[in-house]
Write a structure and sequence with these properties.
The complex is a heterodimer.
Chain A (H helix, E strand, L loop, with lengths): L6 H9 L5 E4 L5 E2 L14 E4 L4 E10 L12 E8 L4 E6 L15 E8 L5 E7 L1
Parallel strand pairs in A: 6-8
Antiparallel strand pairs in A: 1-2, 1-3, 4-5, 4-7, 5-6, 7-8
Chain B lengths: L6 E7 L10 H12 L13 E4 L3 H4 L5 H8 L7 E4 L5 H14 L5 E9 L5 H9 L14 H16 L3 H15 L13 H4 L4 E4 L1 E2 L8 E9 L1 H7 L4 E10 L14 H14 L8 E3 L5 H10 L8 H6 L16 H5 L6 H13 L13 E8 L4 E9 L3
Parallel strand pairs in B: 2-3, 2-4, 9-10
Antiparallel strand pairs in B: 1-7, 1-8, 4-7, 5-6, 8-11, 10-11
Helix pairs in contact in B: 1-3, 4-14, 7-11
The chains are: A mainly beta, B alpha/beta.
C-alpha cells in the first residue's frame, strides 16, 4: 500500500473487486478517480486508501444507444455517486431495473459493488444500501 | 476592454444533413468558396486559415486535415492549422483567428470548419463522439455523450422541477425555426406529441431531445478595421470573447445543473465587451440536447438558474419572444456536424446581425451572443458580436 498510486493500479483494483481511492498526503482528502493534483490543498503526493463503500446517489441515466463495445449490455444504468469520504465517482447502478428508471430516487444510500459486463470488463457499481 | 480590430465580413455554411456523395474536403471547399469568392473576398487576400474539425481520424480515417482541406479549397501554401476541442472545435478555431487579427499578425484570415459523420454506422459515430468524454474513467464504463446530458437533465429535473415536456418544447421550437431554414437538416415542424415519442437514447433523453448526426461545413472571413469596408458596408464586430475549461469527468463537477465553463466563458466575454445579458438581442447556444439549451440559457445569464424551462414554456426564447434563442433552428434541427458547429453559429450571428436571415430574421438584431461547448462541457467558448454601425 505504500507505492505511488498510478491509474493502471487504480483500474486493476477495480478489476480485482478491491476498489481503492487516492488519499492526499498533505491534507487527507480522498480522491477518486485519480487526479494529478489535490484540488483541496494543491498537494501532489498521494497514497492508496480503502473506502467504506457507502455513498449516496447524485444523478443517473439509463443508456439505450451505446458505443459498439457496450451495445449488447443495453439498457444499463450509469450514475454519479458521492462516497461517504466526499469524492464523487461515475459508476454503474446494480440491483435496479433499467426498464423502470423513474422509480429510482436521487439521494438514496448506496453500497459499493462490482459487475462484469458482456464486454468482459468489470465495472464499479452501486446498489441500494 | 472590448476587442478593437476583429470584423466578420462574410460568412456561409453548406446545407447540413446527410450529404451523400460528398467527402469532407468537398464539403469544406463549398463553404470556403461561398464565404470568399461568393462574397466578394478574393482568396488571394486570405493570409492564414484556422480550421475546426473534431475527429476526422475516426469518422473518415484522415489526420493532418488542415493542409489537406486548405489545399483542396484553393488555399495551398497558407499557414493552415486545425483546432480541436470536440464540439467546440469551430469556436476555438475562431478564437485563434480573432487573436491573429487583434495581434496585427495578419490583416485577413479564414476561419472554416467541417465534419463528415454519416459515412460510418450510428454506433461507430457514437463511439467517436464518446472520445470527447474521459476514456479512462467514464466512456470506458459505457457512458455516452447523450448519457452525460441525461445525467445533467435528471439533476436539473430534481432541483428545479424541469420536465420531459419542457425539454420536448425546445425541440418543437427548434423544428419550427428550422422549417423556414433551407440549409437545415430537418425542415419540418413537429408536434409536442411527436417530440415526446418515448424512444429513449439515454433516459430521460429521447430521440427528439438529441441533435442528429450530420455532415456540413461553415466558413467566415475575419479582417481588421482598415480592410473591412472594402468587402462590405455592414461588417460585424466581435467585441468580446471568452473561453474556459472544466473537468472532463462529470463526477468532478461541483454542479450538474450548470456547466461551469459556460458560466466562466460568458462572464469573461461580457466583461471584455462591457455588456450584460440585458444588452443581448438574441443568442445562439449549443443545443446538442434539449436540456443543454435550457441550461445554457441560464449559464449565459439570460435567465436565472432553474428559470430556463419556464422561459421556453412562455415563448420568451421563440423567434418573436423577448430573447430569441437559436432562431434558425439550432443544432437540434439544423444539424450538428460537430467540429463545424461553432463556425456555423458565427455565421448565424453574422446573418442575423446584418439583417440577412430571411424568414428566420429576428426583429432586434444589433448585438448577440454565441455559445459553443465541447464534449461534456469541458470546453466552452462565448463570443459577443455587434453590427459595426449599431
Amino acid at each position: 500500500m505504500s507505492e505511488t498510486p498510478t491509474i493502471e493500479q487504480y483500474q486493476k483494483y477495480i478489476q480485482d473487486h478491491d476498489f481503492h481511492a487516492l488519499k492526499c498526503k498533505s491534507c487527507g482528502a480522498v480522491i477518486a478517480p485519480p487526479k494529478g493534483m489535490c484540488y483541496s490543498c494543491g498537494g501532489t503526493d498521494f497514497e492508496w486508501t480503502a473506502v467504506s463503500g457507502k455513498g449516496k446517489l447524485v444523478s443517473y441515466t439509463v443508456i439505450h444507444v451505446a458505443a459498439e463495445e457496450f451495445q449488447e449490455e443495453t439498457p444499463y444504468f450509469v450514475a454519479i455517486v458521492e462516497l461517504e469520504e466526499g469524492t464523487r465517482i461515475t459508476a454503474r447502478l446494480l440491483g435496479l431495473d433499467p426498464n423502470e428508471p423513474e422509480k429510482v430516487k436521487l439521494g438514496i444510500p448506496v453500497k459499493l459493488g462490482y459487475e462484469t459486463g458482456k464486454s468482459g470488463k468489470t465495472y464499479i457499481g452501486f446498489s441500494p444500501a | 476592454m472590448p476587442l478593437r480590430e476583429t470584423n466578420i465580413v462574410s460568412g456561409a455554411q453548406t446545407k447540413f444533413g446527410k450529404l451523400e456523395g460528398l467527402t469532407l474536403r468537398e464539403i469544406f471547399a463549398e463553404a470556403v468558396d461561398k464565404a470568399t469568392i461568393g462574397a466578394g473576398v478574393p482568396k488571394e487576400d486570405i493570409q492564414a486559415a484556422f480550421i475546426g474539425s473534431f475527429i476526422p481520424e475516426m469518422l473518415v480515417h484522415q489526420g493532418h486535415t488542415a493542409p489537406l482541406l486548405a489545399d483542396y479549397a484553393g488555399l495551398r501554401g497558407l499557414p493552415a492549422t486545425r483546432h480541436e476541442a470536440a464540439c467546440a472545435s469551430g469556436a476555438t478555431a475562431l478564437r485563434a483567428g480573432i487573436m491573429a487579427i487583434e495581434s496585427g499578425l495578419y490583416d485577413t484570415v479564414l476561419v472554416a470548419a467541417a465534419e463528415k459523420m454519416t459515412s460510418v454506422s450510428t454506433n461507430r459515430a457514437t463511439e467517436a463522439l464518446a472520445a470527447a468524454a474521459d476514456d479512462e474513467f467514464e466512456s470506458s464504463m459505457g457512458l455516452t455523450f447523450p448519457g452525460v446530458f441525461a445525467i445533467a437533465a435528471v439533476a436539473h429535473m430534481q432541483e428545479y422541477g424541469t420536465t420531459e415536456e419542457d425539454m420536448a418544447l425546445v425541440a418543437v421550437k427548434a423544428h419550427r425555426n428550422a422549417a423556414k431554414n433551407p440549409l437545415a437538416q430537418f425542415q419540418k415542424e413537429i408536434s409536442l406529441e411527436k417530440a415526446m415519442t418515448p424512444r429513449y437514447i439515454a433516459w430521460p433523453l429521447k430521440l427528439f431531445d438529441c441533435s442528429p448526426i450530420s455532415d456540413g461545413a461553415a466558413a467566415i472571413v475575419l479582417t481588421n478595421n482598415e480592410r473591412a469596408k472594402q468587402y462590405t458596408d455592414t461588417p460585424v464586430k466581435i467585441v468580446g470573447t471568452g473561453q474556459a475549461s472544466a473537468s472532463m469527468n462529470l463526477c468532478d463537477r461541483t454542479s450538474l445543473t450548470s456547466f461551469e465553463a459556460s458560466v466562466r466563458a460568458s462572464r469573461i466575454a461580457y466583461d471584455m465587451a462591457g455588456l450584460t445579458p440585458k444588452d443581448m438581442d438574441f443568442a445562439v447556444v449549443h443545443d446538442c440536447f434539449t436540456i443543454a439549451e435550457i441550461i445554457a440559457s441560464e449559464d449565459i445569464g439570460f435567465f436565472k438558474p432553474g428559470a430556463g424551462a419556464k422561459a421556453v414554456r412562455e415563448g420568451v426564447t421563440a423567434m418573436d419572444g423577448d430573447k430569441p434563442i437559436n432562431p434558425m433552428g439550432g443544432l437540434k434541427a439544423v444539424g450538428h456536424p460537430v467540429g463545424a458547429t461553432g463556425v456555423k453559429q458565427a455565421v448565424v450571428l453574422y446573418r442575423e446581425l446584418i439583417g440577412e436571415a430571411g424568414a428566420n430574421q429576428v426583429p432586434n438584431h444589433d448585438t448577440a451572443l454565441m455559445h459553443n461547448f465541447g464534449g461534456t462541457g469541458a470546453t466552452a467558448v462565448v463570443n459577443i458580436m455587434r453590427r459595426a454601425d449599431a
